[in-house]
Each structure stands twice: as C-alpha cells, then as structure tokens.
Amino acid sequence: MIGVNERQLTSEASADAVVHDASRIAYEIESVRFRYQAGSSDGADWILDDVGFQVKAGEVLGIVGPNGSGKTSLLKILANVLIPQQGRLRLFGNGFATLTPQDMARLVAYVPQDTQQSFPFTVAETVVMGRFAQRRQSWWSGGFGWEDEMDIAVAAQAMGAVDITHLAQRLVPDLSGGERQRTVIARALAQVPTVLLLDEPTAFLDLQHQVDICRVIRQLKEERGLTIVLVSHDLNLVSQYCDRILLLDRGRVIRLGCPEEVIEPEALEDVYRCRVLVDRHPGTGLPRVTLPGRSLSGRP
Amino acid sequence: MATPISELAPSDSSPIVSPLPAKDGAEQLRQWKSIGAILTFQRWVTIIGGLAIASLIVCVLSLQFGATKIDLRTVMTVLSRWWGSGVPDTAGIDTSAMIMFHIRLPRVLTGFLVGGGLAVVGVTLQALLRNPLADPYVLGVSSGAALGVSLAMLFSIGTTLAFLPGLPLFGFVGGLLSLVVMYRLARSQGRLPIQSVLLAGVILNAMLTALIMFITSIMDPNRSAGLMAWLMGSLTVSNYGMLSLFALYVLGGASLLLQKAQTMNILTFGEETARSLGIDTERVKKRLFFLAALLTGAVVSVSGMIGFVGMIVPHAVRMLVGSDHRVLLPASIFAGGMFLVAADTVARTVLAPTEIPVGIVTALTGGPMFLYLLLWRKEQLV
C-alpha cells in the first residue's frame, strides 16, 4: 500500500462499503426496448422488448436463452456500447446519459464475444491498454500518455490471473482462440472495474482454463465484491457459478431467480423447445442439465 | 440515491485477485522491455532518432541526382552557406548550385512532406477502418481530393485567393466528402467488413476518376495538359513560400494526429470495445476523418495522385517497429518521406533528361516491396 494517499484510502473504503453492501443495486433497468436500425427500420423486430430487472451489487448474474434471444444485445446495453431506443438505465443510481465513456470505463469492463484483432499488438501491449481510462487525463494523454509502474503492475497481475504471463511478447493475431480470449479478459481485469460484463467468457477455452476463469470470477466476487454479469450458452456453468440467472426468450425476460428457480425442466423446455433432463450436481447440489439421450425423443 | 462515480471507482493499489504477483511494476517493466513485449520511451527515442538521421542522409544524397549531376561537395557547400547565413549564397559556385537551391531542394523537401503525409494518412485510415490494407489512393479519398482540386482549377478559383491556400481547401472538401460517402457505403450494423470497405473504395474511385476525366475533356487543351501532368504525380512547387504553407498543413495535421496516437491504438479493437475502454468514439472518429481529409487534400493539391505509399510504408514500419501508434505515426512520417524522396530520385534519373511521373515509380516499386515484406514476415513467424 506504499504511496496510497488519504483520499485514495477513503475512496477505497467507501467503494468497499458500496459494493459489498448486498442491498445496493448496481443496475436498474426499466422497460428497455431495442432494435438494430437496418434499412427500412419500421419493419424491424424488437431485439429486446420491455426488458426490466435489477442487478444487485456484488452478485454474479448469468444471462441465458436460445440463439437470437437478445442476450448479447442486452449485455452491450449494460456496457453502454449500444443505446436502446427506449427505457431507463441507471448504474449505482446514475442515469446512463450522465456518464461519459470514460466514467463508464472506470466502473464497467466489458469482454466482447468477438475478440478478432488484425493489428499485430503484443499481448502485454493489449492488456496495458485496459489502463487507458484509469490514467490521469490531460491534453496529451490520448496521444503519448506513457504507462507508469502501477499500470504495468496491474496489467501483469491481470495476466497472471488468467494464466497468460508467458505470452507477454506474443502477437495477438498469432494466438489461439482461447489465448486471445484470455488476453481480452486480462485487459478487462486491468481496468480494475467495479462491474465486469462477460460475453461467452469460456466459449473457446479448454476444460482447465474454463475452470480457471470460473474460479477467477468467484474470486473477484468474493474478494473484491465485484458485480459480474455473464452471458453464456453453457447452462451448467451458469447454474454452478452464478448467484442468480436471467432467462431470456425472444427479447423478453421469462424468469429471473436463483439456479433452482430457473434451471428446471418446465421453463427450459418451454424456452428451448426441446426435452432436457435436470438433476442435481453431486458436489454442490445445484441443478445440472443433460441432453435427453438416445432413448428419449428430443421433442417435449 | 445516486452514488458519485468518484466514490465507486476502486483504488488502483488493491490487488485484482490474490495472491499478488511475485514481481512489482518496475521489475515487470524491465523484463517486458528486455523481451520487447512493450514499447518504452527509450526504444521510441532510438527508433525515431535513427529514422530522423537516416532521412537527413537520404535527402542530402538525393540532391546530387537529376538531369544535371551535382557533386556532393557542392551540395554540402551550398547547404552549409545557407545554414550559416540564412540566405542562399550561391556566389562563386557555378549554375549547378542555382539548380540545386531553386529546383532540387524544394523538390526533395516537397517529396519528403508528400511521402510523410501520405504515410500518416494511411496509418490513420487503417486504424479508423480497422483495416491494415486501407490507403487514401485505393479508397478513393485521393480521387475525391483530386476532383475538388480539378474543379477549382476548372473555374480558376484556387490560385486567385491571395492569402487563403485555396487548392488544399478544395482538396480537403473533396477528400472529406468521398471519405464520408465511402464510410457510409461500407458500414452495416456497426461493422466495417474489409471487403465492403475495399469495394466501396474501388467503386467510388472509378466514379470520381470518370468525373476528373470529364473535367479534363472540357478544359481547353493547354490547361488540361498541365492538369494531367499534375494528376499523374508531380513534386514541383513554385516557390519556398508555397512550400512553407504546405509544410504547415502537413506538419500541423500530423501533430494533431500524434495527439490521438494512444486513442488510435484502442480504436483498432473495434468501436464497441473502444467505447467500453473509455473512448468517445463518435468524437474521435469525426476528428480523425477531418484530419485525414485535411492532409490528403493538402498532399493531393500539391502532388496529384501518388498511390501505394499510404499502404506499403505503414505496413513495413509496423513490421519493423510494432503496432503502437505512438511510434508508428512518427516513424511512418520519416519512412514515407524517405521512400518518396528515393522514388523521385529514380523518377528523375532513370531516363534523364526525361523525367517519369513519380506515381509510376511508387506503383512499380510498391507492389513487389509489399510482396517481399509479406514473405519476410512469414519467415519471421515460423
């Protein structure tokens, strides 16, 4: 804690008080409607239709739903990279309209699903860029603000957390999908956010790194009190690692609750329009989803 | 109850996840420096300093060559007298000194600024469009600027404005319009597919070139010959006053771009990611469009259509010094300048005393060089 001044300490203390207080609300979303304006916009369907829910501070919320149900769009709206046509959005009581992109980036880190990069930056350079919004802003900082030792230390730590320290000098376009995904997660961690938004964080990862990322997610929640919202196709992962789950279908919220309330056959068969088997995980007792198997028909 | 942002952002010093890493920031920085994982200030100074010295050498050497060969000693004498007294003193030296000072030196300086300007526009367009193949010539921005300048020439307006540098302004407007049209055509659902960008550029280029042809066909033949010569790429400026004005455009535009170098780094991740990392993308985009068009307008109004410099130079520089725009932008200015000065030296010597348009030389050297770098890069990656 060398070099931390009093102001930083008090702000840290109050930040802790805010994010650890489970009664606090991180996101308040009210009647959000959104659609992409493609060509003749009148005919376009709403991607999200009258979506409203709250995200509690310090919880891990999973968003699930079939393909095209609006999961990714919803996450982008929470990240403020998509602006909905209608609806009210607040982050810790602050209306989205009052937040600049820089304010937002200091609080919220967003890991997109598509991590393609055609410019040959090194992994270390990419992760350090997560520090951009946290650096002191001046007329030149958009140009030549050089990273200080603190930025480097935070970036190195973020890289350690997702096991990419050994890739520091590798070029991002040459990495495998999983390595690139972990690089982008490290960049988000280097933002030292209060809220972390993840879109399919484990999509390209092997089993070992899936477990690693899930461990980091729980650790971030428990040690730092981070609020985490993640979108995933993997119902089991969401069931095991999320405190609450939001089930979306065709742009509407179908259910929102703890894993036992959402991961149950009736709701899933209704939304996914196929049969599923739900039993209990032997270790945690949380619901576990399996395909119906050869002996059963796929139709409900 | 709204919680102020300042109270929500956590202090930097707390660990992201325990346990803390074994190394502290200073030690990690040293290690990353040693393996070249990150750009450091020392490396920046070495690269830019080296390129500046190399540029100086290339420019001085190229002063010797042309229809008349001027030996290096005369070149150095004229330069040192000029440096010493501030006025060109060509007394006691033969006419070749006059040629050097009044024709060749402005031409070399113009070439350097044109090459540097084109390269820096290329870097900017590449970051803006997230497309390492972007180039003002290929995307039709140069044709837009050329159309603007041609229109001004047709109605003889540009040259009559005494204090306003008229032609660059027309070039700027033409370049900006074509850039915006190209961007609108290529963009769909917030994405900019590489193929759409190139296709939109090619189509736009064809249409704009047709309009320029139309203008030359209705001009009176004497003036249209001059227009054609300029279009094919020429590096002649009439006097040092014009040259200083041009330098002001190019260096001013380039330094305003340098001020957004870090922002351009982040913009290459895509607009949504850039926004989530704290960039006001809409504002930055407008600014970069504006500056790219301004530089293209200035460069095209002086030198016509010189292709490939904006694509090959940034590409080569990126392979040698990395992608960080803090070093890529200034390095591209020097490398682009050197490249065009060298190309122009070839253009005026290879068939001396006949000169070939420098645009032909850049196109003929640019293509093979691009291929060579591609192969060399492939070997590096194995």
Query: What is the fourth-level CATH superfamily of the domain at 110-370 in chain B?
Result: ABC transporter involved in vitamin B12 uptake, BtuC
CATH fold-level assignment of the domain at 110-370 in chain B: ABC transporter involved in vitamin B12 uptake, BtuC
Reading the helices and strands of chain A in chain order gives HEEEHEEHEHHHHEHEHEEHHEE
**What is the average per-residue confidence, as pLDDT of chain A, rounded to a whole number?**
84
CATH class of the domain at 110-370 in chain B: Mainly Alpha
What integer value in Å does the Rg of chain A equal? 20 Å
CATH class of chain A: Alpha Beta
Which CATH architecture of the domain at 110-370 in chain B would you pick?
Answer: Orthogonal Bundle
Shape verdict of chain B: globular
Overview of the structural elements:
The complex is a heterodimer of chains A (300) and B (382). Chain A is α/β, with parallel strands linked by helices. Chain A has a single domain (22-36, 45-290), classed as 3-Layer(aba) Sandwich (Rossmann fold), CATH 3.40.50.300. Helix content of chain A is 35%, strand content 22%. Chain A has helices at residues 6-20, 71-78, 101-107, 123-128, 141-144, 149-161, 177-190, 207-224, 235-241, 259-262, 265-272; strands spanning 25-34, 48-56, 60-64, 86-91, 94-95, 108-111, 195-199, 227-231, 244-249, 252-257, 277-280, 287-290. The longest helix of chain A is centred in the last third of the chain and has 18 residues, at 207-224. Chain A is globular and about 60 Å long. The model of chain A is unreliable at 1-20 (pLDDT under 50). By secondary structure, chain B is mostly helical. Chain B has a domain at 110-370: ABC transporter involved in vitamin B12 uptake, BtuC (Orthogonal Bundle). Chain B is built from 16 helices and no strands. In chain B, helix 6 crosses helix 13 and helix 7 (166-186) packs across helix 13 (281-303). The radius of gyration of chain B is 23 Å and the shape is globular. The relative contact order of chain B is 0.14. The interface between A and B is large, with 88 and 65 residues.
